[in-house]
């Protein structure tokens, strides 16, 4: 069995180490026996890559055939521990609290707190006000409360992300006690024998024991992304450079193999590197960070400008004209009140809470996010590029037919279903009524379809039905497979058994079980979807003893399936019942299985229904291709199979020649098929497989279409099959692709022999284009993680420190320039298009613009490199794209996309490259995640528009009115602090729990770089509309209190320092001070009450409160009533307790003075409802254009 990879160049090591190779060659039983016998191993860091395999087995108490025993595993687990790299030490809760106390808004609050204490003493001497001291204490307590709340939310979000990662245990195949089984990687110990397959991540440092064309990517260790050909032989004295060693986290890019674990956890190379760099961490700035930073920057600038205006007015005019009205000390307090009033202190907690809330919601939708900040991108997604198998389809692939020659066909028997249980009368009535509704719905759907076909002139075109003449009795073919004597069929059956990697294994149940120790073991069929379908067909429907067939026809070598070749090749030594046949004369059967259009082109003959071998002519190839096309149109996936036969002696010579060519590096420009022949195969037949679409996908695609999100299918399957499935799931719809037209591309030669791309619409030539300059993708680019041009980054290092600092600050609020040349977003054309991967290489910018402007897109027979190219071209045209993938080859596209969506059933490589993971592999979960991402953006906007009117606008004007119009201060700094720190924070946390509105998936995606969290529309609505009404309402209640208590407007307006003097009021100064405390409390309570109405108006952007009420239905939000109760309790707490009235300068509020707020609040709610109604009726009106 030739599976030991590429041998080392013996001359190379002979000259380097003066070894006598001729003496060693006769003694070598495995790759390294005595190969380094003359080397002083004491100078080497490690010798596990050098010592003979027998010594290695003895050292770890294992062997390649049986693996570790159960007793040895237990001992090793005690000695080495779990296979887990110690994560970086998380910061302590105390350290998080200390950091939170002195960052962000709290820095400003500390300054305000210190100034307040200074205003008490010494600035307040000789008569310091106890209210200033109380305000300083309140500010101090608020800083502590705000910090504790933010830290609590951070810890909660950290734990959620950590819990998500624990829900995705990585599984590896090991051999223990002579049994192959799948276990969690954390349970691996040194000495374990592991089995490696394409797309898997190596779970620990290991030494290879068997390599079948094994190539691994060790870029995480070396930085070089070029795959390394693994060998069993030691190829370097240096442990890090020898190709017989695999490192933890390396990716198996091709092939299969076996390896012995030599180090786990912190003892691996990556574990040691991790210990050295454990303290070095950096947080990427996401777009959500930038949006919040922009909000904070606006608040900071507005606060500075307001305070500057305040002090300029005071110093230039008020202090000179009315010197005793507002003293220096009082102006400091006013500045503090203005500062606190501007700060949206509920925003940090609201952002963290909404991220946590949305993450939990996504998890319930079977979507796991790796970083909470990435969820914001879902709001901007304009294209979803999805695969077909398992995402759009059920991933329950079954073999329905075996086909050979031109007409030969065998229908795989369908297993008999179990008899249905006897149903009750109630169940019968329910079933019949359900059937009536389904029938009515089907009739209505058919009626719509007839109308569409009438309008398109295709009434007589019937729906395509399966074109297979699959009646076994009619075709005179037995139903029982073992009774069929046709050799082509028997070869298909044998090939399905041998050219397949599907096998039964003992696996641990990796369902979402948090306690890994409780996982149950069971037998499960492991392998890709095609191999498992063939396995089930052979074993369950054709009753083949798979294990016996494989045992007597032992496998010699295999070229695993990969997405580039799209086929698999295996070599098996065929059983011989004649003992007289020499070993060299035994038959080796080489089987190729893969995509039909690719496999057929490698065949030169075919086997007929009469077991004859005839030349595969061009006409016959066309007939087979036509048969495959017809099957694809019916939704069948078609797999072709061909074979060649050699004697064992000829096969060995062929493999030796391949090894010699590989040593001489003569294969650089030749297709490398692991020594297998690339052509001259004999075509045997086809397998027809069916994988029906998921029932919920068509509705999800239509939902995405209503949200103005295009869904593009990118698959490796044949265009005919891709087109058929796309029609079934509404990616290609009758309204566009059938009525308007379906476009295609064909690369052809013109009359002058020049390559031209012909563009067809409904198979009619509509245009011709000569390709110009072709574009190539940047495989290393990530949408937001590393978008800076390398040259720009290097030049930044040469800039002066102040320019680098400015660049860093600018990066906090705006996205850096992309490395890809951006273009404006395209206008879409109402047509569908199907593009074959073979044509992508001929497309220039003109063709890309034309292709990607279609509303409905299907890309078929696409390679991973082409998938990456498609993603990059979407990005160049200002599209925000989400890409699905499940294979190791999908990793570059997943990394390049704005959102990489990996499948839980996919490889570890894809899950590591993706930003989110779909636990159910279901396309509809992606659309639900987009809806949840839009909810995140909506709720953050609602938080902002709730906080701004009361938190800044209605608190700033009392200070300016006091300064400019000489009236009593309507809102003290204390009340401003209590309102911002307590009332608004509690209510804003209720805002983030809002449910999505009904029309959330009927809006277009937000445009990154333009649709900001804080924009002009939102500021106009928050300040000019809500803020002015709220401010007017609070001033109305404030003035109502004064006037109702005998103090007319002219007695407190423009009085400045003369308020209450010269007999203008019937009250003494102390009485007026006490009344002003009550009036300020009235202003505060009026603001709190109006914010309730602002909350109900802000709950929806366009929907009516009646459609989205908080009491029941999809818009239910009972948290708001709890928040309102808490807010009222805070008001009562500070206004009704005498101690607070005396120390803090508050007052008891008679309810009648805040009753006008109910009227003004209802008026505003009605006005806003009318505004939303007008927007719904006239979505293109001026009011709709300025709506937030």
UniProtKB/TrEMBL annotation:
Residues 47-121 form the Cation-transporting P-type ATPase N-terminal domain. PANTHER family: CATION TRANSPORTING ATPASE, SODIUM/POTASSIUM-TRANSPORTING ATPASE SUBUNIT ALPHA. It is found in: Cell membrane. It comes from the Eukaryota. SUPFAM superfamilies: Calcium ATPase, transduction domain A, Calcium ATPase, transmembrane domain M, HAD-like, Metal cation-transporting ATPase, ATP-binding domain N. GO terms for cellular component: plasma membrane. One of its GO terms (molecular function) is ATP hydrolysis activity. It is a multi-pass membrane protein. It holds the Pfam family Cation_ATPase. This is Cation-transporting P-type ATPase N-terminal domain-containing protein. One of its GO terms (biological process) is potassium ion import across plasma membrane.
């Amino acid at each position: 069995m030739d599976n030991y990879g590429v041998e080392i160049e013996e001359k190379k090591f002979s000259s380097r180490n003066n070894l006598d190779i001729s003496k060693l060659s006769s003694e070598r039983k495995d790759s390294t026996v005595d190969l380094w016998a003359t080397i002083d191993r004491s100078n080497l860091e490690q010798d596990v890559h050098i010592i003979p395999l027998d010594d290695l087995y003895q050292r770890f108490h294992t062997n390649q055939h049986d693996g570790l025993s159960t007793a040895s595993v237990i001992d090793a687990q005690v000695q080495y521990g779990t296979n887990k790299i110690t994560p970086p030490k998380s910061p302590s809760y105390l350290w998080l609290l200390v950091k939170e106390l002195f960052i962000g808004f709290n820095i400003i609050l500390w300054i305000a707190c210190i100034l307040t204490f200074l205003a008490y003493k010494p600035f307040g001497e000789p008569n310091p006000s106890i209210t200033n001291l109380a305000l300083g204490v309140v500010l101090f307590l608020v800083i502590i409360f705000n910090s504790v709340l933010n830290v609590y939310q951070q810890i909660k979000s950290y734990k959620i992300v950590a819990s998500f990662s624990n829900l995705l245990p990585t599984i590896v195949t090991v051999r223990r006690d002579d049994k192959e089984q799948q276990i969690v990687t954390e349970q691996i110990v040194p000495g374990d024998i592991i089995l490696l397959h394409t797309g898997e991540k190596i779970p620990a440092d290991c030494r290879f024991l068997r390599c079948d064309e094994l190539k691994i990517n060790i870029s995480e260790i070396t930085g070089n992304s070029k795959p390394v050909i693994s060998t069993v032989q030691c190829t370097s004295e240096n442990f890090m450079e020898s190709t017989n060693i695999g490192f933890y986290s390396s990716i198996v890019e091709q092939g299969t193999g076996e390896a012995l674990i030599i180090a786990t956890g912190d003892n691996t190379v990556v574990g040691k590197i991790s210990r050295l760099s454990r303290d070095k961490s950096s947080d990427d700035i996401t777009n959500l960070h930038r949006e919040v930073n922009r909000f904070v920057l606006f608040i900071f600038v507005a606060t500075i400008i307001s305070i500057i205006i305040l002090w300029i007015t005071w110093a230039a005019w008020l202090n000179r004209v009315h010197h005793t009205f507002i003293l220096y000390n009082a102006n400091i307090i006013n500045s503090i009140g203005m500062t606190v009033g501007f700060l949206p202190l509920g925003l940090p907690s609201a952002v963290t809470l909404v991220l946590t809330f949305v993450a939990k919601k996504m998890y319930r939708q079977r979507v796991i996010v790796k970083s909470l900040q990435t969820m914001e991108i879902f709001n901007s997604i304009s294209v979803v590029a999805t695969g077909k198998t398992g995402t759009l389809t059920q991933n329950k692939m079954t073999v329905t037919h075996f086909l050979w020659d031109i007409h030969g066909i065998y229908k795989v028997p369908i297993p008999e279903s179990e008899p249905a249980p006897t149903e009750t009368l109630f169940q019968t009535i329910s079933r019949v009524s359900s059937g009536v509704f389904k029938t009515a719905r089907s009739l209505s759907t058919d009626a719509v379809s007839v109308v569409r076909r009438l309008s398109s002139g295709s009434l007589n075109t019937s729906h395509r039905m399966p074109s297979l003449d699959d009646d076994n009795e009619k075709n005179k073919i037995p139903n029982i497979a073992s009774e069929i004597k046709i050799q082509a069929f028997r070869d298909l059956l044998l090939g399905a058994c041998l050219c397949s990697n599907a096998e039964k294994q003992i696996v641990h149940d990796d369902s979402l079980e948090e306690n890994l120790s409780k996982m149950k073991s069971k037998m499960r069929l492991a392998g890709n979807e095609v191999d498992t379908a063939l396995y089930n067909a052979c074993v369950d429907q054709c009753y083949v003893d798979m294990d016996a067939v494989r045992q007597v026809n032992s496998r010699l070598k295999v070229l695993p399936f990969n997405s580039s070749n799209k086929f698999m090749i295996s070599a098996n030594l065929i059983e011989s019942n004649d003992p007289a046949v020499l070993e060299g004369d035994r038959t080796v059967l080489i089987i190729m299985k893969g995509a039909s259009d690719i496999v057929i082109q490698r065949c030169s003959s075919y086997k007929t229904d009469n077991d004859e071998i005839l030349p595969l002519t061009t006409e016959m190839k066309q007939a087979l291709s036509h048969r495959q096309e017809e099957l694809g149109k019916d939704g069948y996936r078609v797999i072709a199979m061909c074979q060649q036969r050699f004697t064992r002696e000829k096969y060995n010579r062929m493999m030796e020649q391949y090894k010699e060519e590989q040593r001489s590096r003569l294969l650089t420009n030749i297709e490398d098929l692991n020594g297998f022949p690339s052509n001259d195969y004999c075509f045997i037949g086809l397998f027809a497989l069916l994988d029906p679409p998921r029932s919920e996908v068509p509705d999800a695609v239509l939902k995405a279409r209503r949200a103005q999100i295009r869904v593009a299918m990118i698959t490796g399957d044949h265009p005919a099959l891709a087109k058929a499935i796309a029609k079934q799931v509404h990616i290609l719809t009758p309204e566009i692709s059938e009525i308007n037209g379906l476009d295609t591309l064909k690369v052809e030669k013109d009359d002058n022999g020049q390559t031209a791309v012909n563009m067809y619409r409904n198979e009619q030539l509509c245009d011709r284009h000569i390709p110009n300059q072709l574009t190539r993708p940047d495989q290393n680019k990530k949408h937001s993680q590393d978008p800076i041009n390398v040259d720009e980054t290097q030049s930044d290092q040469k800039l002066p420190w102040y320019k680098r600092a400015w660049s860093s600050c600018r990066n906090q609020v705006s996205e850096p320039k992309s490395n890809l040349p951006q273009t404006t977003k395209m206008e879409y054309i109402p047509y569908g298009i199907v593009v074959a991967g073979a044509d992508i290489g001929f497309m220039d910018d003109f063709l890309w613009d034309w292709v990607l402007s279609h509303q409905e897109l299907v890309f078929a027979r696409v390679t991973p490199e082409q998938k990456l190219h498609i993603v990059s071209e979407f990005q160049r045209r200002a599209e925000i794209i989400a890409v699905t993938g499940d294979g190791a080859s999908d990793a570059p596209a997943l990394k390049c996309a704005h959102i990489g969506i990996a499948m839980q059933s996919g490889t570890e490589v894809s899950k590591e490259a993706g930003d989110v993971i779909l636990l159910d592999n279901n396309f509809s979960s992606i659309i639900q995640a987009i809806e949840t991402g839009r909810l995140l953006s909506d709720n953050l906007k609602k938080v902002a528009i709730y906080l701004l009117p009361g938190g800044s606008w209605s608190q700033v004007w009392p200070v300016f009115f006091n300064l400019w119009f000489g009236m009593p201060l309507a809102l003290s700094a204390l009340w401003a602090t209590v309102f911002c720190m307590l009332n608004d924070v509690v209510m804003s946390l209720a805002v983030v729990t809002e449910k999505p509105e009904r029309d959330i998936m009927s809006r277009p995606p937000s445009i990154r770089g333009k649709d900001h969290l804080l924009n002009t529309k939102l500021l106009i609505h928050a300040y000019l509309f809500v803020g002015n009404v709220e401010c007017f309402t609070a001033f109305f209640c404030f003035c109502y209190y004064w006037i109702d208590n005998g103090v007319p407007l002219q007695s407190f307006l423009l009085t400045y320092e003369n308020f209450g003097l010269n007999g203008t009021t019937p009250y003494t100064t102390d009485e007026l001070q006490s009344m002003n405390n009550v009036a300020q409390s009235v202003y505060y309570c009026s603001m709190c009450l109006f914010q309730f109405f602002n909350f109900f108006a802000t709950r929806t952007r366009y929907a009516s409160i009646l459609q989205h009420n908080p009491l029941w239905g999809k818009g239910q939000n009972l948290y708001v009533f709890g928040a309102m109760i808490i807010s009222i309790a805070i008001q009562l707490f500070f206004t009704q307790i005498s101690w607070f009235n005396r120390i803090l300068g508050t007052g008891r509020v008679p309810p009648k003075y805040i009753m006008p707020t109910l009227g003004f609040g209802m008026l505003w709610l009605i006005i806003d409802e009318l505004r939303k109604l007008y927007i719904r009726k006239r979505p293109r009106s001026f009011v709709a254009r300025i709506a937030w």
